[in-house]
Each structure stands twice: as C-alpha cells, then as structure tokens.
C-alpha cells in the first residue's frame, strides 16, 4: 500500500466515510518479528510489535459490527470494537482506558491469549474470508495499545482504608487481579508467594522471548504503588496455614490462586534417567533461574543438550522446544500423539516453532526412554499412532499402531504433557472441598466451601489460561468486597 | 524480606554453621524439615539445607553446610551481619516421631547435621539412642559434642583411624544388628553411597530404616519434579513426599547418577568462583 492510499484511508476514517468495502481491501497487517535464524541465538522477544502505521491500518479493518460478536468470544468482555475504533482514530490513550475497564493485564494478554479460539474466532472479517487468520488482529492491537502507553505505572485510585486484611495466595495473573481489585476497595491486601519473585507462571514458565519479564514486573510495580504488600518466600500451608492466617493473623478473606503446579509424567520406563526433565523444571531453570547465563553470572545449570525431544502439543511444549533451541541444541524434535490440528498451542507459537526449525513428529509418542550405563538418556523408543473416534475432550482419540516401534536418538527429553493440582493446600486446609482431580470446588462467585475463602485460576479450572485466571481473580475480588461490606463491623479490626 | 546472619562459625575445615533470622520458619519448623535458600534474587541458585536447630523465641534457625561448590563457598565467605536474600520453608514432611524403643542414628560426614535435630527429638520421645558418627578423618568429624548428651551409646569411626575406631560406619552398625537386642529402628543420614550400604546391612537384619535424601532441588514445592527419586520403582518427589523415605525401598544408584547430573558444570562454576575470590583478595 502506498503512503497516499494510507493517507486517504485515514482521512476517510476521520470523516466517517470508510465503507466496509474499503475495510475489506486493507490487507491483514503482519507483526514485525526477529529473523528466525537470528532470534534462536538470543532470548529477546520474537515479535517486536506493531508500529503506529500498522496498528491504525489493522484497526481500520474492523467493521465496527453493531452486535460485535468478538466480545462474546472474550472471556472478560472487553469492548473490543470501541477500543479498536479509538486506535483507528489515533486516540491510543482512550483505547487503553477502554481495555482496562475489563482487563488489568493488557500487555500480557495481548501477547499470550489464544485469540484464534476466542475473540478472533468470532470476528466477522475472519468469517467473511473463511479464514480465522484473516480476522482483525485484536490481540496485536491490544498489545499495541498497552505497549505505547507513556503514562508508565500510573496506579489506579484506592478507596479510603478500611483496615480489613485480605490475603492473596499466589502471585499469578489471578492473584494479581484479585489483589488489585480488593485493594481498590480500600482493603489491606497482602500477597503471599512461594517463589522468591512474584508473577507466577508468567515469570517462571512463559519464556522471555514470548513475554518479557519487564512487562510482568511493571504490573507488579503498579500493585506495590497501590499499597499492596507482597511477601515472597512464603509457602501457605508450610510457613503459615490458611487457618493461622485467618484465626491468628487477622485476615478476614482469602483468595487462593496457587496455580496447577504439579507436573504430569507419563509413567513410562526411564522417566527418572539423567536428562529427563518436566517442562516445569526445564523452564524454571531457564527462565526464573536464568540458566542461559550459567557461567556468566547465573549459578543454576541446565543440560548442555545436542538433541532434544519435547513431548506434548501445548504452549508449554512449544516454549520448552524453543527454549532448548536457544540454549544451543542442534536438533529439537516435538513429539505429539495427535496431529497439528488437535494441538492446544496458540497458532502463532506453532508457526514460530516451525519457523525456527523445530522438527514436528506428529502421531507419535514415547513408549520408553532408553539410557546408557551411566543412566544418561540416549534415545526414546516411540510408537506410531492413528486417530480414532472423538473422545470426551472432543478431539480424536489417538490409537497406537502395534509393532510400529522406532527409536529417536536424543540426549534430553522434556515432558510437557500438562500439570495437575498441587496437593499442599488440600493437605493443610481442613474443610476445603476439592473435586476428584484435586481442584478446589467453587460456586459462580468463586467462593469455596469455607467462609471467607475464595479461589480461582488453574487450581480451580485445571491447567487453563492467563485470561481465565484473571477473570476469576476479578469475580472473586468482587465477591470478597461484597462479603466484607456485609460482614458485621464489630468483627473488623484495624491493622 | 532478607535474612540476617546473626552468627557464623566453622565446624571443620569445610563445614560451617550459621544462625539466621527467620522467625516464621523457627516457629513452624519441625525435626526433619529443611529450607531452601538463595543468596541473591537475580542469579543465585536455590539450594536446600536442613534446619539443624531452631529458636522460636529468638526467631532464628541454625544451618550447617559443607563447602562443596560455588553457592556453599559463597555462603562460607559471608560474615555475621550480612544478609541472605531468600530463605523459604519449612519444607518437606517432618520426621515421624514415636517411641520405637532403641534407635540407632547413623550419621556420615555432613549428615550429622540433619541427623542431630532428629536424634534430639527421638530422645525426647523416649527412645534409647545409639549414635554412630562417621567421618573420613578426625578434623572432619562434626557435632560429636552435641550428640554426646543425647546418646546412650556413642560410637565414632574414621576412615583413616585418626580418631575413634578405624572403620566405616557399616561395621559397628552390623555389630549392633547382631546383638541379641538388635535396634528397633535405624535413622541413617549421610552421603548416598553410605546410606546405600547401611541400608544393605539393616535390610539383612530386618531393621526398619529411615533415610533422609539430599537430591538436587529447584522450587522445593513439588512443582518441578527435579528432585525425584525412585521408591520401589515409582517416582517420588523428595521435597514434598520426603525428604525421609524407607531406605530399603530407595534406588540409590539412580539417585547418585542424578546427583551428578551437573557435575562438570558445577565444578567449572566453583573453579571460576575460587579464581574470583583470589582476585578480590578473599583467599
Ligand atoms: C510454559 C507455560 C506456557 C503457558 N502459555 C500460556 C499462553 O500462551 N497463554 C495462556 O493464556 N496461558 C498460558 N499458560 C497457562 C497460564 O500461565 C496459567 O493458566 C495461568 O498462569 C494460571 O494463573 P493462576 O492465577 O492460576 O496462577 P499461576 O500463574 O499458576 O501462579 C501461581 C503462583 O502461586 C504460587 N504458589 C503455589 N503454591 C503456593 C503456596 N502454597 N503458597 C504461596 N504461593 C504459592 C506459585 O509459586 C505461583 O507463583 C502457560 C503455562 C505454562 C506453564
Ligand atoms: S467482530 Fe471483528 S470486525 Fe466485528 S467488531 Fe469485532 S473485531 Fe471488529
Ligand atoms: S524440587 Fe521441584 S518438585 Fe521437588
């Protein structure tokens, strides 16, 4: 598109003359990214983000549908067509204000939400072209509006102090939002985090090249500015129990947002050999502990792998595979027992992984892991699979093909087949109800079976998403604020 | 929230002890539990150390460690008054304490440190305590003085015979098991290889044996699985399912291999650190 054409579009946008036909003609705007070869030798963010030019063009592709079907697809119902209109008009500040009405972490969500199965799946433009890839890039626009914000760290207003203490357990996206929303109501809020740094999966799991840690830190800084206290190195259930927090330490309401946090293994032979990692361990070493700087300051080592097999098909799998590449692996295989179509990972991550040279082995799964006399991994033996009938998850069931065994030579295996609930809270909180998978049972207000105790995020939903955790943090906070308002005043003690 | 080192001293050439401010952990900690520390928040690794003692009134815990690599060396170079950025705990399951009758407590090298609070608590629970403390040589023996008052019988062995009996701990352990009144229970803590051989002895005599495992850890909350060991062929996480296990069920060979997973890298880091210490005049 020439500069003149662009100016014409902008002019029409301004005067309200831009017609759907004009909008359909604007090509979908790609987001600039680092070169695939270059980027595998650094840990910097892969996608560098829209410029103003891209953003306004992309925003003008939006038809401003009356019924805005995209909003239905958004777990927190952001007024999508309105913020996009503001970007098209060049009023980026207004766009962010609109987004922030419903989402507290736009810079994060713009980067990590699975938009293609949420807002963008419903987008009229994508439907018209019969290609979700041609939908308006709502996520990229959200990211743009968040990143361009100059008013760094402006903290939301806080109501007069109520003196009521609220405890937030876990500093993942759910905890962050619950803390912000209860603090806004004037409560005395403390976040307790087991790790030495706050942020949950956003800091220990999702890699820098996909979600720069500085972005998460900015959100944490906002909380601190609002007066939320953050206590790290504090394991609820071990350092203090929920009962102690409520009965002895004066906390009147609690939000549990401890995440999933227990890695699933496959139960196959050889899973404890040297060189076999859970994705959690591999990513924690690489991200939180900065193992990529081992010997250059960082003290936490990680395997010096040449050939790596990563098992699974989700975001965690893609993150592990791409991290292995950045840590110097020559060959990285991604082994998944269904096909690409069934992969739960975001399309963009699959695309990036392929672009970077990750070798996809679909319809395969390891049967055992083979080691040498030193118990070091040397290979995996895989079985081939075919797809059968639909199963309970609505995906085709993978069926092993008998006698199809073959070996893949590798020195490292990363198992990324998901997480289950960490039992610590269950073991240390009598009266709290859990379902058979160990997830906390809550009602529609995220209230648990215990008075004053609320929960949300992965510990409730099973492994879910950042935006769903955030949504629950918000619902829980609203319920907590209401609960505390109604609670008899005599029970409130300041400090 | 960082943690001040209240006092620090040397127990032997390479073993150090420090009292550290950590009031919540001092209150909640029980024998058998441990903490994870990292010296600073950016680049330091996280290492598990047993809570050797706790003073809930003073709000301090006591740690004992051996200088074996970069982090433990760095810790050894710190002075009273300095601060450790992160101390988290108490972690792991506490020791199952009861009156077994006669308990033999076997400690090897630095293993005497985690053994001490357990032996003390077992004594308090009414057990007769026989302690066997082993070291490579006299200079490396630690905590003998603290085991003396709680032990009904105390046997010291050194590999080179420079002190006590010239033997490995397995020798007196076997003799005890051969007595008419064999011990009712054993607690063995030390290097993996020593625990392995002690367990072979006690198994032979059907003496139930608890060991405390010291695997590599990252989060120590059950999130990563890096600490896993095989117990009767099944993976268990030392940080949440342990650190104590039935020693007769542990796959020690695999555990030793896993402990060595980063040996070369760790060595390199330690060498680098030693060079750096020389440069800044610490050594
Ligand atoms: C590698 C990886 C990639 C992912 N990619 C995506 C993606 O692209 N898009 C997406 O939407 N989602 C993604 N997810 C999922 C998403 O990160 C989670 O659904 C989300 O973070 C869950 O949020 P949460 O609020 O439940 O808490 P979490 O982020 O799970 O954080 C929980 C926090 O609680 C702390 N904690 C646990 N137990 C205790 C305790 N007893 N006391 C104190 N603190 C405790 C933990 O240390 C942790 O910091 C990914 C997950 C992983 C692991
Ligand atoms: S559905 Fe698509 S085109 Fe319609 S308002 Fe939403 S983003 Fe715009
Ligand atoms: S150290 Fe991570 S699970 Fe035990």
Please outline the helices and strands:
The complex is a heterodimer of chains A (495) and B (283).
Chain A: H1 3-15, H2 20-25, H3 36-39, H4 52-60, H5 69-73, H6 80-88, H7 92-102, H8 106-112, H9 119-122, H10 124-128, H11 138-147, E1 165-169, H12 173-184, E2 188-192, H13 201-204, H14 213-226, E3 229-231, H15 242-247, E4 251-256, E5 261-263, E6 276-278, H16 279-286, E7 307-311, H17 315-326, E8 331-336, H18 347-355, E9 359-362, E10 364-371, E11 377-390, E12 396-400, E13 406-409, E14 412-415, E15 419-421, H19 424-428, E16 453-455, H20 458-461, H21 466-486
Chain B: E1 3-12, E2 15-21, H1 23-28, E3 34-38, E4 47-50, E5 53-55, E6 60-66, H2 70-76, E7 83-84, E8 86-91, E9 102-108, H3 112-124, E10 128-135, H4 144-147, E11 153-158, E12 165-166, H5 170-178, E13 185-189, H6 192-204, E14 209-212, E15 228-231, E16 234-237, H7 238-241, E17 244-246, H8 252-259, H9 263-279
Parallel strand pairs in B: 9-10, 9-13, 10-11, 11-12, 13-14
Antiparallel strand pairs in B: 1-2, 1-7, 2-6, 3-4, 3-8, 5-6, 14-17, 15-16
The complex binds flavin-adenine dinucleotide (FAD), iron/sulfur cluster and FE2/S2 (inorganic) cluster.
Iron/sulfur cluster binds next to helix 5, helix 6 and helix 10 of chain A.
